[in-house]
Write a structure and sequence with these properties.
Oligomer: heterodimer
Strand content of chain A: 5-15%
Shape of chain A: elongated
Largest sheet of chain A: 9 strands, antiparallel
Number of domains of chain B: 1
Radius of gyration of chain A: 49 Å
Structural class of chain B: alpha/beta
Strand order of the largest sheet of chain B: 5-10-1-13-14-4-15
Distance between the termini of chain B: 24 Å
Distance between the termini of chain A: 34 Å
Helix content of chain B: 25-40%
Strand content of chain B: 5-15%
Number of strands of chain B: 15
CATH class of chain B: Alpha Beta
CATH topology of chain B: Alkaline Phosphatase, subunit A
Chain lengths: 1376, 436
């Protein structure tokens, strides 16, 4: 190879020459030599064709009759050199110069070219102003906004390449109307990402208010999350509010306690301080300090002392036990409210509210548990000293008694003897069952009053009365449906097909006649359905009045129509007949659930009997109780008709109430409501012996028959285990103390006790209560301190069912609601402690206890902050975002963090505009409340909401100038220089003009932003040349842009801009230092892509779509990884200042799992990107081994030694190859079989015309035949023939395979390779072709490289320090 | 070229084009053409020009035509347009002298429609192409001056000292501005039918136009030319906004279709090349039918194309490499491209515009940068379908082989003449092909 480059020794010499002015004498010598020696040779060998007349190939060499002329057109002489060197000229068929003549001409041309270069060395060259490339545009926008997901140029046309083959050369970067439209659209799209904040503009990935709000919420939650237990995730349930300790804002106590236990020794010994410990354990120092101080404080505290003593005994693993003890008290001293209504009348004041366990006295009502079968209940009245250990705490249990709703109260003292006495009465009276029944039958027959007959027959009058009301023979009349709705609801929710009956509020019944489901308010009403809604005190009822005599079966459905809220409902289906009431089905459903019922039994009915279907509120809470009801009644025999509630009534709902059925029977359906508690309950099980007896009486059976029936009843009641479910149930009911026969009231001589009990703490009084007495009853007493002896006492008094365990401190109770809500607008339900501390108001001890409790609460809030932020604990809420984090602030945050949190919240409010939204929300809530609640409860909120909205509007207006300022600042960044006063004025003027065009503030601001982003100053790399014809340095800001677009493909960052503003960037050492900084930055990846990948022709390899899917189905999956490898390689090379020669001989590369597998390098398939060493042994390392380049320089299905060879020659070595000839032979049809891919290539180029060039390039490609068309190593080629990877170059050099090729390039072509790399990087940096006048700089760089281990930064620094990089040609520089 | 006066003329013309960039079009154009007065509304349909291009030439033995009218015989490549032979003008033997200099592929393509010399060595310079010259003349009559579409991404590299931009662009709006191609069917559709301008746009455009003017004063003349691309682009967008809603008032003819009759194509580029081409063909037809533009260039693929054709079962070799052979698959691929031409012709021929069809009122020119895949551009393949409003007689074969004045640019002068644009000289031609 005839190398045109000087050796290193020569370069050193040249380097010296570069900076010397050319002596005039040399010039004169040159002129002489040209005229005397060279011109004649040209005339002889060249001018025949390249005369002014002929101009073969548009080349006129004749006109160069002076050295001056030659120097002004060096480019043409470069071509001459190239053509001669390649042996292309003179053409083979023409007369050839002798070897000596050729050498002479070439030497002269070269030295002349060098002199031309030297004469203009450092010329900035013609660099046309240009727009940003698509990549630069995208990166600039991303850096400007900080939004890395922006891909604004996604649908732009692909940029062209020019200059040294990169897409950053002005000539190829054009503009057109359609492209400008795309820029305008893209700018508007980017402006949508602007987020308006109180103090300026920020950018976000998101564009909608909702998404932005969510983003901000996530930021606040993330902030809160930092102070929670990172390893948490345990669900905690505090009075119905469920938390996750990880993100629920719960104080991560266990963690802190564990730290204090683990580090106790070191902290106590002073070997570590709190800050160190906090840092080591990753916990908050401020709180750890407070906790540590509290645990070690010696000041007595009722609540803390037991904790402290437990802590002193604990080991690190006991942290949980300690935590549990504290958590119990947290549950006792705090309560959580529903935050949706904070601010309404009697509403909660905060989410987490303190509960005071100190009371002077308390009424205790303790539900007695049902003891095990046959056992008595043991009860302990326990009085403890509340942990303060004070002697002489005297307290009173005021008249403790057992209270049952259906019996007179029993004094605790009398309880034991009661059972015995009742038992006697029962035994006697049950034996007289037939007698009582005969009495009733007689009374029924004779219409004589029951008490008269009882007295006559010496039966107990009271007992007879109970029997009478049990069997209800007086009710053997037609049952009646009562409480019919009279008010019609039309067009419910504006829908004419939905109508109903009922009160304006509740209860009500509604039918949907449409096939379509209807969604209104919070309801979801299915098509063709009926819903019922009870009131707190009234159940909603549908009656079906039987038009037939016979048997029926029934089935139905209860489903919540309003799953958003409420506590579910209770429901019941009764058969109300002449013989009494029987409950056929009943139950309760939870919120959002449904229940289908289908009792399999058949029931006898007579005309006029009623099936009653009732919906009740649960616990009187009727909120959201709308319930879809279905009821189908089937006639078992007869006509087998069926009555379906919805089908029969929804179309005719308003015809009448009651409503006829569809078979023409009048008054079958009744829509009613009645008092919940007033409904009589069935007691006689249908089909039981008593029911039979009753029917017999009504049917007027004979006395003998009645006697038999009565006897059966008595037998059942006396038998211990009767047969049949109905009779078992009957016996259970009738023997119940609280049943219809009211045995509990029967024992004579019992009256409520009145004795108070005195107790000195600590003490326990024990009582045994018979099971029959305990069932369903509660113990009621009032506890207080002894008026004289207990004035300064403090005790806890509790009713227990297991023997008390003596504890050292007070016991934490739980908080129970006192009463309930009637309407949803009602205020906060008060709570009381189950284990209060009894202490007199105004006593000293109370003050001390209160202080202890307060201190405990301060240190251990149950929650640090409300991380939900958006309350979802009420149906309707008047708080969109609720902030409660004062405990977090107080216990953990430092000043900076507190400010940061405030800022986040302020931004949340600004972005979400919740203050404005609440105005509408309030009106909606008010309307809601007027329907079925008390709207006045919300009156206190109206004004504050209005005021906040007003304040917000002012804030927003106040923010407008800030936004404009922000936009001006952004313009400076976008335009990469400070704005002039006029530009600022014009931007403001544009904004004002847009406002005048009636655009709202944000729209006008966004459009102003878009204007900045389509301005030439953003889209173009603008530089202002001096007037004149030489060149001058660009200014600091222009230099900053040159540097950042070179190394980062983007606008300068703040540091560069600051240096530029200070005028320091023009200092070569400063720019060199900045270059070093920028090369280490991660943004240098862009240089790797835009320069490295582009140089190797593998940029955007992920989109490379030229492989046959039939031959290489696996290729698509590995494309991205193949394309990423060079990017990582170059990034690493730049960041770590690797050697240029690494590009050839690196023994490392970068792979992920996919690529490692593809390259058979090993490692797991799903591994991430990593650097691997020793890859040369696996056929990789350096650019020669990149799968991407090997695949790129191949055909769709076969390798191409030609493409690979040309790539090595042109791309890596910078050789100028002759142009392929025009009129090459077209190949015939398919090639013969059995040829290797190599042989195929050799056959194609066997034509002598082709061989001339292919012999030059193909051998390089042959050496890489061990790689298939998608870059994998292979042993056989696609024709399944063995590979021949040997190569013989034109100059006779021989080598084999990638290793041979690499050695050849490294040893024999190092200069060419390094020169080519430097040339390409220089061309990329300057955005133009490399010129003759750049050759001295390349010489210098090459020399510097050799002195500095070929460190790549030498090239970069050489470039950025060069005149061509730092200067610009003057405005009037002549264009050739 | 030895005729120096020609060279001189061409250069003058190019310089002229450069200078006029900053001027409103009409003022500068009257210099060249004896422009006819705009037709009255409701008069006959306008003549449209569509240029379809595919790179790398055709099967060396199957691109030919002989005979006349119904009896015309066609090579196999042309099978897909055989139905329209009576509307076909087949031209053989034309060439582009500049394309025979310089490199292969890229420098045979970048000047196909201009005949201009191409700059090498990393520079970009060609000449304004015939479609864009027509757009300058007729552009104001329609909403969109011209449509430049493509089905293959351009190639961002430099090859043998020539930018591959040349391989990917036949349409040039100035000697230094290859017209960016629209590859996205949906965006091409939007360009025709979506009026994106919103309130305030005009103010924004005015502002940036002023920016550009300010900057322009401070830079070199070379840079001024670059900024003129920007200025012209902004001005055209402004004009389009001004003209929005004024359709009919200025276009002088009522098209047979006022709204698109096909849905907006899906976003993105179709995976399947056949689908991609078909959508672009539909858009071209729609543009003509609605008279949204009268000039359209559709580059079906690049010269030096990398397309594969899995849809034809030919995916073992990319288009470019396939072109170096004369295989059955190469023929199949050629026919696939002709099918697109036939598809457009068929659709246009089905649109009745008065007595003629839209095809009769159009010129659908299909060409390539070389005759066969051997880089030989000594003669160029040209097939023109359509009657140019009765001004071109179909069913003929014209052969200029062996003649001295066989410049492609003479054909362009003829085509421009059919659209009443008569610059006198164009590229390296000074006279029309009379026979056309």
């Amino acid at each position: 190879m005839n190398c045109s480059l000087p050796s290193f020794r020569q370069i050193a010499a040249l380097f010296a020459i570069v900076f010397l002015p050319l002596p005039c004498s040399a010039d004169k010598d040159d002129v002489g030599r040209f005229k005397a020696e060279i011109r004649p040779l040209l005339e002889k060998f060249c001018l025949d064709c390249h005369s002014t007349e002929e101009q073969e190939g548009e080349l006129d060499l004749e006109r160069f009759d002076s050295l001056e002329a030659i120097r002004s057109e060096g480019k043409i002489w470069q071509l001459v050199e190239e053509q001669m060197e390649l042996g292309e000229m003179p053409p083979k068929k023409k007369q050839q110069p002798s070897a000596g003549q050729k050498t002479e001409i070439l030497a002269w041309v070269r030295s002349t070219l060098r002199k031309i270069g030297e004469a203009n060395a450092g010329d900035p060259g013609p660099v046309v102003v240009r727009r940003l490339s698509n990549a630069e545009y995208t990166y600039s926008l991303r850096d400007l906004t900080g939004v890395d997901s922006l891909d604004s140029a996604h649908e732009f046309p692909v940029d062209g390449a020019a200059g040294e083959g990169f897409t950053n050369a002005g000539a190829a970067l054009v503009m057109s109307p359609s492209l400008f439209t795309k820029y305008l659209d893209a700018a508007k799209e980017v402006s949508k990402h602007a987020v308006f904040l109180p103090d300026g503009i920020a950018f976000s990935e998101k564009t909608t208010r909702r998404d932005l709000t969510d983003e901000k919420l996530a930021e606040i939650r993330a902030f809160y999350g930092k102070f929670s237990n990172a390893g948490g995730g345990t669900a905690v349930n505090l009075q119905g509010i469920k938390f996750d300790t990880k993100d629920g804002g719960v104080l991560p106590l266990r963690r802190y306690l564990a730290v204090t236990l683990e580090e106790r020794a070191d902290l106590l010994a002073g070997r570590k301080n709190i800050a160190e410990v906090a840092r080591d354990h990753g916990v908050n120092a401020k709180y750890l300090g407070k906790l540590w101080k509290a645990l070690n404080d010696t000041k007595p505290s009722l609540l803390l002392d037991p904790i402290r003593s437990q802590w002193r005994k604990s080991k690190p693993e006991d942290a949980q036990t300690l935590t549990d003890a504290i958590t119990r008290w947290q549950g006792s001293l705090w309560r959580f409210t529903t935050v949706g209504h904070i601010g309404k009348r009697d509403g909660p004041r905060a989410w987490q509210e303190p509960v005071d366990p100190l009371v002077p006295s308390k009424e205790l009502r303790v539900k007695l548990p049902t003891p095990a079968e046959g056992k008595d209940l043991t009860l302990y009245l326990h009085t403890s000293d509340a942990g303060d250990g004070k002697q002489g705490d005297v307290a009173i249990w005021q008249s403790p008694k057992i209270v049952h709703p259906k019996r007179p109260p029993v004094s605790l003292a009398d309880a034991a003897s009661l059972v015995q006495r009742v038992g006697k009465v029962m035994a006697a009276e049950l034996g007289r069952t037939s007698a009582y029944l005969e009495l009733l039958a007689e009374s029924h027959r004779s219409k004589r009053p029951v008490h008269e007959i009882a007295q006559l027959k010496e039966l107990d009058v009271t007992m007879a009365g109970r029997w009478a009301s049990l069997v209800q023979l007086g009710q053997s009349v037609l049952p009646k449906a009562k409480g019919h709705f009279i008010e019609k609801h039309v067009k419910v929710a504006g829908n004419p097909e939905i109508r109903g009956w009922g009160s304006a509020q509740t209860p009500s019944l509604t039918g949907n006649a449409s096939e379509k489901a209807a969604n209104f308010s919070t309801l979801n009403m299915p098509g063709r359905s009926v819903i019922m809604h009870p009131s707190p005190t009234k159940e909603a009822i549908v009656y079906w009045r039987s038009p037939i005599a016979g048997k029926i079966g029934l089935s139905g459905l209860v489903a919540d129509a309003d799953g958003n809220c409420g506590n579910g409902v209770e429901w019941r289906v009764d058969l109300v007949s002449r013989t009494g009431i029987a409950t056929l089905a009943h139950g309760a459903i939870d919120n959002g659930t449904r229940k289908e019922f289908d009792p399999k039994t058949e029931f006898a009915v007579l005309p006029g009997d009623l099936v009653k279907f009732a919906i009740n509120p649960r616990n009187r809470d009727h909120v959201c109780d709308s319930t879809v009801v279905g009821l189908t009644i089937r006639e078992v025999g007869g006509k087998k008709r069926s009555w379906d509630l919805a089908e029969q009534v929804v179309d005719r709902l308003h015809d009448s109430n009651p409503l006829a059925d569809v078979f023409g029977n009048a008054d079958v359906w009744h829509f009613c409501a009645s008092e919940t508690d007033g409904a009589p309950k069935s007691v006689i099980p249908p089909a039981s012996v008593l029911a039979n007896w009753r029917t017999a009486v009504i049917d007027g059976k004979t006395t003998a028959e009645l006697k038999t029936a009565a006897g059966q009843v008595q037998a059942v009641l006396l038998a211990s285990n009767p047969a049949g479910e109905a009779d078992k149930s009957l016996r259970e009911t009738l023997l119940d103390w609280n049943g219809p026969l009211e045995w509990g009231k029967s024992a004579p001589g019992i009256k409520a006790g009145s004795g108070d009990l005195r107790a000195t703490a600590p003490s326990t009084l024990t009582y045994r209560i018979p099971a029959a007495l305990a069932a369903g009853a509660e113990l009621v007493t009032r506890v207080s301190l002894h008026p004289q002896e207990g004035k300064e006492a403090s005790v806890q008094m509790r009713v227990l069912f297991t023997p008390p365990v003596e504890t050292s401190g007070p016991t934490a109770g739980s908080n129970n609601p006192k009463g309930g809500k009637k309407m949803w607008s009602d205020g906060l339900v008060p709570v009381e402690s189950s284990a209060p501390i009894i202490v007199n108001d105004g006593s000293k001890v109370r003050g001390r206890l209160a202080a202890d409790i307060e201190a405990f609460r301060d240190l251990f809030p149950a929650a640090l902050c409300y991380t939900k932020i958006v309350p979802v604990d009420e149906v309707v809420t008047l708080t969109l975002f609720y902030r409660e984090d004062h405990h977090l602030h107080r216990l953990m945050l430092d000043e900076t963090e507190a400010k940061q949190l405030d800022r986040l919240w302020s931004e949340l409010h600004f972005i979400s505009e919740d203050a404005l939204q609440l105005v509408d929300a309030f009106e909606q809530l008010w309307q809601f409340a007027t329907q079925d609640a008390d709207p006045s409860a919300f009156t206190p909120m109206r004004e504050p909401i209005k005021q906040r909205a007003e304040v917000f509007k002012q804030e927003r207006i106040a923010g407008e100038p800030n936004h404009l300022e922000s936009i001006l600042a952004l313009a400076g960044q976008a335009w990469r220089r400070p704005l002039t006063i006029e530009e600022k004025r014009d931007l403001r003027a544009l904004y004002k003009e847009l406002r005048k065009e009636e655009l709202p503030h944000e729209a006008a601001a966004r459009l102003t932003l878009a204007r900045i982003l389509v301005a030439p100053a953003f889209l173009y790399k603008l530089e202002s040349p001096q007037s004149g014809t030489t060149s001058a340095p660009v200014n600091d800001f222009e230099l900053a842009s040159r540097l950042s677009y070179f190394l980062w493909s983007s606008a300068p960052d703040e540091e560069l801009m600051t240096l530029a503003a200070a005028g320091e960037l023009t200092n070569p050492d400063v720019i060199a230092a900045q270059t070093q900084r920028m090369l280490k930055d991660k943004r240098v990846r862009r240089l790797a892509i835009e320069f490295g990948s582009q140089w190797l022709h593998v940029r955007d390899f992920g989109d490379f779509d030229e492989k046959s899917e039939r031959h290489f189905p696996e290729f698509a999956a590995v494309r991205n990884a193949l394309g990423e490898e060079p990017v990582r390689f170059f990034t690493d090379l730049f960041q770590h200042d690797g050697a240029v020669l690494d590009l050839l001989n690196a023994d490392h590369t970068f792979v992920n799992g996919t690529l490692a597998k593809y390259y058979a390098i090993g490692g797991s398939d799903d591994a991430g990107w990593r650097r691997v060493e020793g890859v040369r042994a696996k056929g990789r390392g350096g650019v020669l081994g990149f799968g991407a380049t090997l695949a790129k320089q191949s055909g769709a299905s076969r390798t191409s030694p030609i493409l690979r060879g040309a790539w090595i020659s042109e791309t890596l070595l910078g050789e100028r190859l002759p142009r392929p000839p025009k009129g090459i032979p077209v190949l015939g049809d398919a090639p013969p079989k059995g040829l290797t891919e190599r042989a195929l290539t050799e056959r194609h180029v066997s034509d002598p015309n082709c061989a001339r060039c292919h012999d030059r390039i193909d051998p390089f490609g042959f050496a890489l035949e061990n790689y298939d068309a998608i870059g994998r190593l292979r042993l056989k080629d696609s024709a399944d023939l063995p590979i021949d990877a040997s190569a013989k170059l034109l100059d006779g050099t021989q080598f084999t395979g990638i290793d041979g090729l690499r050695d050849y390039l490294l040893n024999q072509r190092q200069d060419d390779f390094v020169r080519q790399f430097s040339r390409k990087l220089l061309g990329y940096a300057l955005g133009r072709s490399v010129l003759l006048s750049d050759e001295p700089l390349l010489d210098e760089i090459q020399w510097q490289l050799a002195q500095n281990d070929f460190r790549i930064s030498q090239i970069v620094e050489g470039i950025v320090r060069s005149r061509q990089f730092r200067e610009i040609r003057d405005r009037d520089h002549p264009i050739k | 070229m030895k005729n120096k006066s020609h060279l001189f003329n061409r250069r003058t013309f190019l310089r002229g084009a450069g200078v006029t960039m900053a001027l409103p079009w009409m003022e500068s154009l009257t210099v060249w053409g004896d422009e006819r007065k705009a037709r009255e509304p409701g008069s006959e349909a306008p003549v449209r020009l569509a240029v379809l291009f595919s790179g790398n030439g055709f099967h060396s033995k199957e691109w030919w035509a002989k005979g006349e009218g119904k009896a015309m015989e066609l090579g196999k490549v042309l099978d897909p347009i055989a139905d329209y032979r009576e509307k076909l003008l087949f031209i053989r033997g034309l060439h582009n002298a500049e394309a025979q200099k310089g490199n292969i592929h890229s420098s045979q393509t970048g000047n196909l429609l201009s005949g201009a010399p191409l700059a090498s060595g990393g520079e970009i310079r060609s000449g304004m192409s015939v479609d864009q010259l027509l757009a300058r003349h007729h552009g104001r009559s329609t909403k969109v001056p011209s449509l430049v579409l493509g089905c293959e991404k351009s190639n961002p590299s430099v090859h043998k000292n020539y930018s591959m931009l040349y391989s990917s662009h036949i349409s040039w709006s100035s000697p230094t501005t290859p017209t960016p191609l629209e590859l996205y069917p949906a965006l091409a559709f939007d360009r025709l039918f979506k009026d994106t301008a919103s309130k305030g746009d005009q103010s924004v455009l005015d502002a940036v136009l002023q920016d550009a003017k300010d900057v322009r004063r401070k830079v070199s003349s070379l840079d001024q030319r670059k900024l003129d691309e920007y200025l012209d682009s902004v001005r055209e967008v402004e004009t389009r906004i001004e003209n929005a809603g004024k359709r009919g008032e200025f276009q002088g003819w009522r098209p047979t279709l006022s709204e698109p009759n096909i849905p907006r194509p899906a976003d993105g580029i179709p995976q399947d090349i056949a689908e991609h081409m078909r959508l672009m063909c539909d858009i071209l037809v729609l543009a003509f039918q609605t008279d949204t533009t009268r000039i359209c260039t559709l580059k079906l693929n690049n010269d030096h194309s990398s397309l594969r054709f899995p849809n034809l079962g030919v995916d073992y070799m990319i288009h470019h490499l396939l072109s170096h052979s004369d295989t059955a698959d190469w023929l199949k691929v050629n026919q696939f491209f002709l099918k697109q031409v036939g598809y457009i012709a068929g659709k246009l021929d089905a649109i009745q515009e008065g007595e003629r069809t839209a095809l009769d009122n159009s010129m659908l020119m299909f060409c390539s940068s070389m005759l066969t895949g051997n880089h030989d551009a000594t003669q160029l393949p040209v097939a023109i379908l359509g009657g140019a409003g009765g001004r071109i007689k179909g069913g003929r074969v014209l052969d200029y082989k062996g003649e001295s004045e066989r410049q492609m640019c003479r054909l362009y002068l003829s085509l421009m003449d059919k659209m009443d644009v008569r610059p006198g000289t164009f590229g390296d031609a000074t006279s029309m092909l009379e026979e056309v």
